[in-house]
Design brief:
Layout lengths: L8 E5 L5 E6 L7 H12 L4 E6 L5 E5 H17 L7 E5 L5 H12 L2 E4 L6 H10 L4 E5 L4 H8 L8 E5 L44 E2 H7 L14 E6 L9 E5 L1 H12 L8 E4 L6 H6 L2 H5 L3 E5 L6 H11 L3 E3 L2 H8 L13 E4 L6 H11 L3 E6 L5 E4 L13 E2 L5 E4 L12 E6 L10 E2 L3 H7 E2 L2 E10 L5 E6 L4 E3 L2 E3 L1 H9 L4 E11 L3 E10 L7 H14 L8 E4 L13 H9 L8
Parallel strand pairs: 3-13, 5-6, 5-7, 7-8, 8-9, 12-13, 12-14, 14-15, 15-16, 28-29
Antiparallel strand pairs: 1-2, 3-4, 10-11, 11-21, 16-17, 17-18, 19-20, 20-23, 22-23, 23-24, 25-26, 27-28
C-alpha cells in the first residue's frame, strides 16, 4: 500500500486513535479515474480491485491494471458513440462488473454518470430521461428494463444512444428444489459464461441498441488523459422520492474524496482485506461501499451479482471469499438473524457497519453476541457522504447514529435556525459556508428546491434528531414523518424499534393519523412474522408491549396489519403513502 489517499487529505487523531481532523484537498486537475484507478494500476498493477461472482457460477478477480485496461477500452468505445464531457448517461447495470468499467470510463471522459435501479417502470423512466436530459442509456439485458426503455424512448428526444450489456444471468436463472440451476437450452453457466476470452465475452443483438461487450472488446486500450476539473459535475443520483417526484442530486469530483471518510474511518477497510457492501449499483449506497473510498484506500471490494437476497447465500460468501469488512442495512442483518449463524464460517469477518435505516438495539446486541463484532452505525444521504457516524476506535451507544464526523460542521437546529438544547429534537443541518467536499452541488434544474435546502449558510437535511450530553446523535425521523400528538413530538423510529423486538413483528411503519383531541394519534402498520395472525388479542398485546418499553404516550392507538409495506424503487418505506391512504378512508377506533 502506498497511502495515495494521504495526497488528498490532512488528518489528525486524539490519544485514543479517534479522528479529530479531516481536511480534503485536491489539485486543479484531480480526476478519480486517472489519479486513483490508473495511479494504482501503473504503480501496483497486481493489487486486487474487485472479486466478482454471480449465482450462475461465473467468477472474476480484477486487478487495478485490469480496471485501467477495461475502463480505457470502455472510454474509447463510448467516445466513439459520441459521449463526452458533460453528457449525462443513465446507467442501469445491477451489480454487473461492467458497471465499474463504465463508471471509471465516464469519469475519465468528464461525462456525468446517472445510476438508476432496474426496478423502474415506464412513468419512472420517462421522468428521469426527460428531466435529466439523458443523452445515452447503458442498460442490462437481465430482466425487462431494456423493454421499458424502448417503450418510452420516443417520448425522450434527448436520448441519442442506447447501449446494452449481455450479463449472463444476473441471478435470474431458476433453481430446482435442491438449489441447482435449471439451465435452458443454449444457456451457459459457470466459466462458460466468460468463454476463452474471459471478460465481456457474451454478445447480444437488439434493434436500436449497441452491444457493449463486443464494442468494448474491439476498442483500443490506449486512452489519452482528457482535461477535467474537480468542480465539474461527475455524478447524479435521483433521491428516493418518498413524496413527489425524486430530486436530481448533482455531485462534483470532490464527492469521491469525501468518501475517504466513509471507507477509512467508518468501514475500516484494509488494503489487504476485502470489503462487502450489499447495495445494488442503482442506489447511492453502492458508491459509498463499492467504489470511491475503498479504491482510494487501495482496497479490494467484493461484488455478488445476485437478484434476490437470500441470507444463507450471503453468509456462505463471507467464509468462502474471506470477507473482512461488511456493510448492509439493518433489514438485511435482521434476515441474517433468522439463520443459525454457527453453521457458517464467519471467522474472516473483522468489522461490521450499517446505514440506510436506524439500527435497533436488539439487532446490535444479537450481532455482538453471535459474532463478537460491534455494528458501527453511520448516517448520510444521497446528497452527502457519511456525515454522522460511529467511527473506528469510538465507543458506540446502541441505538445512536454516532457523532458528527470531522469533515463537517453539523448542528441540530430549530425551525428559526437557532441551536437546539441537549435532548431537544430538531433538524440535522450541515454548514456550507464554505461549501465542503462531498455535499451536493445542487438539485439539478430545481433552483427552488436547492434554495429550500441550502440557505443561511446551512444545508438542511430534512432529518431530525436530538443530541445527548456527550455529543451522540439519536435519530428521530424525517421532518414529514414526525408525529405531533398532545404537544409531544414523536419520532417513528423509536416506536418501530420497540415493535421490532416483538417476535410477532417482521416489519412495521409508524405514522400519524388525524385526531380531534390530540392533533395526531400514533398508528402502526405491521407485517406479521410467519406463524402469527392479526387478532384483537395480538393488537392489545403489542400496545402493552410498547407501553412497557417506552413512554406510554407513544404507544400506537391504532394498529393495522398489512401483507407488505409500500416502498420506493430504492426500497425505502413510504410512510407518506400510508398517510395518503389513511386520508382517503375513515379510521374508527381512536382511543
Amino acid at each position: 500500500m502506498r497511502d495515495i489517499h494521504l495526497r488528498y487529505v490532512d488528518e489528525a487523531y486524539d490519544d485514543n486513535g479517534v479522528l479529530t481532523r479531516f481536511v480534503p484537498h485536491v489539485p486543479d486537475d484531480y480526476n478519480f479515474g486517472y489519479d486513483v484507478v490508473d495511479d494504482i494500476a501503473v504503480n501496483d498493477p497486481d493489487r486486487r480491485a474487485m472479486v466478482w461472482v454471480n449465482p450462475e457460477g461465473e467468477e472474476h478477480v480484477f486487478t487495478f491494471a485490469d480496471m485501467k485496461r477495461w475502463s480505457d477500452k470502455t472510454a474509447n468505445y463510448l467516445s466513439s458513440l459520441g459521449i463526452g464531457k458533460g453528457d449525462k448517461v443513465l446507467v442501469i447495470l445491477r451489480r454487473h462488473y461492467q458497471f465499474w468499467f463504465v463508471a471509471t470510463a465516464l469519469a475519465k471522459l468528464g461525462a456525468v454518470m446517472v445510476p438508476a435501479t432496474f426496478m423502474l417502470k415506464e412513468h419512472d423512466l420517462t421522468y428521469r430521461l426527460q428531466e435529466a436530459e439523458i443523452k445515452a442509456v447503458i442498460a442490462t439485458d437481465v430482466g425487462d428494463i431494456a423493454d421499458v426503455v424502448d417503450a418510452v424512448v420516443d417520448e425522450c428526444p434527448s436520448v441519442e444512444v442506447r447501449v446494452i450489456v449481455a450479463a449472463g444471468g444476473g441471478g435470474l436463472t431458476p433453481r430446482d428444489a435442491d438449489g441447482n440451476l435449471v439451465v435452458a437450452d443454449g444457456q451457459r453457466i459457470g466459466s462458460a459464461l466468460s468463454g476463452d476470452a474471459g471478460v465481456c465475452q457474451l454478445t447480444i443483438e437488439r434493434a436500436g441498441w449497441h452491444d457493449f461487450n463486443s464494442g468494448v472488446r474491439a476498442a483500443c486500450e490506449d486512452f489519452a488523459r482528457r482535461q477535467t476539473h474537480p468542480a465539474d459535475p461527475m455524478l447524479m443520483y435521483f433521491s428516493s422520492g418518498t413524496s413527489g417526484n425524486p430530486k436530481m442530486v448533482l455531485h462534483d469530483s470532490l464527492y469521491s474524496v469525501g468518501h475517504l471518510m466513509t471507507a477509512k474511518h467508518w468501514h475500516n477497510v484494509s488494503p489487504d482485506g476485502i470489503h462487502f457492501t450489499i447495495a445494488d449499483t442503482g442506489w447511492g449506497k453502492a458508491v459509498w461501499g463499492k467504489y470511491y473510498g475503498q479504491w482510494l484506500m487501495e482496497s479490494c471490494v467484493f461484488t455478488y451479482d445476485f437478484d434476490r437476497f437470500h441470507a444463507p447465500e450471503i453468509l456462505d460468501m463471507i467464509g468462502r471469499y474471506g470477507i473482512t469488512t461488511l456493510c448492509m442495512p439493518p433489514t438485511m442483518y435482521r434476515l441474517l438473524m433468522q439463520e443459525t449463524l454457527s453453521d457458517y464460517d464467519l471467522s474472516s469477518l473483522e468489522y461490521s457497519t450499517t446505514a440506510g435505516e436506524a439500527l435497533n438495539p436488539d439487532l446490535f446486541q444479537f450481532w455482538k453476541d453471535h459474532t463478537g463484532l460491534t455494528i458501527y452505525e453511520g448516517f448520510g444521504q444521497t446528497e452527502t457522504p457519511l456525515t454522522i457516524g460511529n467511527l473506528t476506535n469510538s465507543v458506540p451507544r446502541p441505538g445512536s447514529m454516532g457523532k458528527p464526523v470531522p469533515l463537517y460542521e453539523v448542528a441540530i437546529l430549530r425551525e428559526d435556525g437557532t441551536p437546539c438544547a441537549v435532548g431537544e429534537t430538531g433538524e440535522i443541518c450541515i454548514s456550507i459556508d464554505p461549501h465542503p467536499a462531498g455535499i451536493m452541488m445542487e438539485y439539478y434544474r430545481a433552483s427552488e428546491k436547492t434554495a429550500a435546502a441550502m440557505h443561511d449558510g446551512w444545508y438542511h437535511t430534512g432529518d431530525t434528531a436530538w443530541e445527548d450530553e456527550d455529543g451522540y446523535y439519536w435519530y428521530v425521523g424525517r421532518n414529514d414523518d414526525v408525529i405531533k400528538s398532545s404537544g409531544y413530538r414523536i419520532g417513528p423510529f423509536e416506536i418501530e424499534s420497540v415493535l421490532l423486538e416483538h417476535d410477532a413483528v417482521r416489519e412495521c411503519a409508524v405514522t400519524g393519523v388525524p385526531d380531534e383531541l390530540r392533533g395526531q394519534a400514533v398508528k402502526a402498520t405491521i407485517v406479521l412474522a410467519d406463524g402469527y395472525a392479526p387478532t384483537d388479542e395480538l393488537t392489545r398485546e403489542l400496545q402493552a408491549w410498547v407501553k412497557s418499553e417506552t413512554a406510554p404516550y407513544k404507544y400506537p392507538r391504532i394498529i393495522e396489519y398489512a401483507p407488505e409495506l409500500p416502498r420506493t424503487v430504492n426500497g425505502k418505506i413510504r410512510r407518506v403513502a400510508i398517510r395518503e391512504a389513511d386520508a382517503d378512508k375513515q379510521i374508527d377506533g381512536l382511543v
